[in-house]
Design goal:
Layout (H helix, E strand, L loop, with lengths): L21 E4 L1 E2 L20 E2 L2 H15 L5 E5 L8 H14 L5 E5 L10 H9 L2 E9 L3 H6 L6 H14 L2 E8 L7 H15 L3 E6 L7 H4 L10 H14 L5 E5 L8 E5 L3 H13 L15
Parallel strand pairs: 1-4, 4-5, 5-6, 6-7, 7-8, 8-9
Antiparallel strand pairs: 2-3, 9-10
Helix pairs in contact: 1-2, 2-3, 3-5, 5-6, 6-8, 8-9
């Protein structure tokens, strides 16, 4: 396969688990793009705009001609393809089903705000057309932290979106940012993030460590006094977060390149083991299998 018939605006982002997926842009950039911790869509070429329906459908058709049934997964990009109308999304999903008959999973990032005007019945329609998984960057369950980083969401708005997705039969992968509250708000960030996960019972839960390759100035504008957590501090926050989780059957991953300590399991079955790994690392960090700084890929 030497040619991908899709127009990309770099840099292109996707979740780690979508490494083998066809990345299909429905929009460029992020419709919100005001979170002060996020650098993904700040480049000028990433200014938000929906792709034309004609371009998207032509890309799907050409991918079908070029790759046929070899495409098994499709990830709808950029930052929040779910901002599009149900009609537009349904048209895309129908085209994927028609022109890419080998596809078994279609997924997308999703901002909670993009579901406010979409009913559970409309989301169920999208699920029946093939949308099976969305990645929701909750970041935190704490309203003060969310306000400080200009997320534009609250505990309640995120919970409502996750519950609506669950009722529609769409699987949810929720992301929490370890360290987002800094030193001052670490405890409430951990406790309320756990409360959000407990309320939503998502199928997947992941934690990443907040990082700022381009510097912290943008975050500090609305978060004066924010101080990053040390590596032991990050692990203590994670220990508190995990200890408060009461999940029935959620696949948990803390293995992104940003994470110092790799944790994997199913919650609640593996909760005691994961907590033991964390507590051992906190007690004896010099003996813990921490990822070296050079390997964090940030």
């Amino acid at each position: 396969m030497n040619f991908i018939p899709v127009r990309y605006v770099e840099p292109v982002y996707r979740p780690p688990s979508e490494a083998d997926s066809l990345i299909l842009p429905l929009t460029d950039g992020c419709s919100w793009n005001k979170c002060t911790f996020c650098e993904m869509y700040t480049a000028p070429q990433k200014r938000f705009r929906p792709r034309s329906e004609e371009e998207v459908l032509e890309s799907i058709k050409r991918c079908g001609e070029e790759m046929g049934a070899g495409v098994k997964r499709v990830f709808l990009s950029d930052g929040d393809a779910m901002t599009l109308s149900v009609r537009r999304l349904a048209t895309v999903l129908e085209a994927i089903r028609r022109d890419l008959p080998g596809v078994r999973r279609v997924s997308s990032y999703c901002l909670p705000r993009n579901l406010r005007k979409k009913s559970a019945a409309e989301l169920r329609e999208l699920a029946e057309l093939g949308l099976s998984l969305v990645y929701v960057g909750a970041e935190s369950g704490d309203d003060e932290v969310l306000a400080r980083v200009n997320k534009g969401e609250t505990f309640d708005s995120t919970r409502e979106a996750l519950e609506k997705l669950g009722k529609a039969g769409i699987k949810r992968s929720v992301m929490i940012l370890n360290g987002l509250g800094g030193e001052a708000l670490s405890r409430q960030h951990a406790l309320n993030s756990a409360a959000l996960a407990n309320a939503a019972q998502p199928e997947f839960l992941a934690t990443l460590v907040v990082s700022f390759p381009q510097g912290e100035a943008r975050l500090r504008e609305n978060f004066p006094g924010w101080e990053p957590l040390s590596v032991p501090g990050l692990m203590r926050e994670m220990e508190l977060f995990l200890s408060k989780l009461e999940l029935k059957r959620t696949v948990f991953r803390s293995d992104h390149a940003s994470n110092w300590l790799i944790l994997k399991g199913t919650l609640g079955a593996d909760k005691p083991r994961l907590l033991q790994q964390l507590r051992s690392a906190i007690a004896a960090p010099e003996a813990a299998p921490l990822r070296p700084a050079w390997a964090r890929g940030l």
